[in-house]
Amino acid sequence: MAIRHGLLALLSQGPRYGYQLRAEFEASTGATWPLNIGQIYTTLSRMERDGLVSPGEQDEQGRVVYSITEAGLAEMERWFGTPVAQSDRPRDELVIKLAMAVTAAADIRPIIQAQRTATMRTLQEFVRAKRANVEGPAQRLVLDSMIFQAEAEQRWLDHCEAVLTASPQTQEKQK
């Protein structure tokens, strides 16, 4: 997700200044994606250049309040209406690590076990966080997604171990 689209979604609810956008972005995502205030203002400048937002006057504290434009609303609607392709997501370092370990003839079992332990710990943290302080549906959806991803990773690690344990090539490399 581009930061700009998240900011446009927040601005669609009304004008805001940079620090408000940062706080609301982080609250909406359960603080899973912390933003640097510089990112916010750089993104707002680019969106202003592109006609997606317009700055208002400075308030008594020197803060500029930004509003979404018609072009910004159209861009937000386009983003909401466009599915996220698998190719748009970052590369999965774990998949690459395991593929390279197999290629390098490394013992894959301790790598999988270390990851399984770390993923289980992370899963437990997500579940605790969900029980402790989900403030709204946006945070709940973010935490649910993270829980489901961790559960899927655990299943995938089990699958990797089963496939590699059964593979004659892997058995030969591990001797």
UniProtKB/TrEMBL annotation:
<dbReference type="Pfam" id="PF03551">
    <property type="entry name" value="PadR"/>
</dbReference>
<dbReference type="InterPro" id="IPR018309">
    <property type="entry name" value="Tscrpt_reg_PadR_C"/>
</dbReference>
<protein>
    <submittedName>
        <fullName>PadR family transcriptional regulator</fullName>
    </submittedName>
</protein>
<feature type="domain" description="Transcription regulator PadR C-terminal">
    <location>
        <begin position="91"/>
        <end position="164"/>
    </location>
</feature>
<dbReference type="InterPro" id="IPR036390">
    <property type="entry name" value="WH_DNA-bd_sf"/>
</dbReference>
<dbReference type="InterPro" id="IPR005149">
    <property type="entry name" value="Tscrpt_reg_PadR_N"/>
</dbReference>
<dbReference type="Pfam" id="PF10400">
    <property type="entry name" value="Vir_act_alpha_C"/>
</dbReference>
<feature type="domain" description="Transcription regulator PadR N-terminal">
    <location>
        <begin position="7"/>
        <end position="77"/>
    </location>
</feature>
<dbReference type="InterPro" id="IPR036388">
    <property type="entry name" value="WH-like_DNA-bd_sf"/>
</dbReference>
